[in-house]
Amino acid sequence: MTTRKIAILGGTGAEGSGLAFRLAKSGEHVLIGSREAARAQETARLLCERIGGSVQIEGMDNLSAASACDVVVLTVPFSGAAALLKQLKSVWKSGTIVIDTTVPLAATVGGAATRVLGVWQGSAAEQTRELLPAGVSLAAAFQNLGAETLSGDEPVDCDVLVCGDDEKAKQVASELVGKIPGARALNGGKLENARIVESLTALLIGLNMRYKVHSAGIRFTGLPVR
Prior knowledge:
single chain, alpha/beta, Rossmann fold, 6-stranded parallel β-sheet, 8 helices, 17% strand
C-alpha cells in the first residue's frame, strides 16, 4: 500500500486537520474531505504551505474523497457521523479500510464535553460498523489524541489503542499511528472495547480542564517497547 490514498472525512475540523498534517508530513498522500469542497481545498492549501516540499494533500467533498481512497479516517462529530455514512453507502469501494476516531461526546448535542452519550449499538465505532457495507473493514483508533496535540510539531506523549475485529484494518490503523512521532499503537482487542476507549476521551477532557492543560494523554506501563 505504498501508493495508498488516505481520505480524512471531516478533515477541515481541528481533529481532522491535525491528523492530515501529521500523516501528510510523514509522506502519506492525504485527501481532505468536507461537506464543502472549497473549504477542503483551502485547508489543503494551508497545510501544503505549512509543511512545504513535495507534500501530497488534496481537498474535495466527502463523497469524492471516500470514492477515491484506499483508507478512510472518519473525524466528523458523532452527531453527523450516521448521516454521512448513509450518504456514502453507494460510493464505497470493496476493500476500503475505515478508521473511526469518533467519540459520542454529549457536547456534540449541546451537553457537557466530559460526558459521553449512550449509543444503542454500544459505541460510536459499533454504530459505524452497522452502517458500513460488506467488503469495507473497520478499526477504531485515535480517540484519545487531542486536536491541539496533533496540530503541533512536537512528538506526542500518548498511547493509541486500536480496536477492531478485522486484523488487516487494525494493522493499517497501527501503521498510521506509527507515523506520528511519540505515539505508540497498542492492540486494544475487539471492536466492542471501543466502548471503553471512547469514554476515556471524556475523562481526558476533564483532566485538561482541571489541570488547565491541553494535551493530557494516556500511557500504559509494563508493555514491550515497540
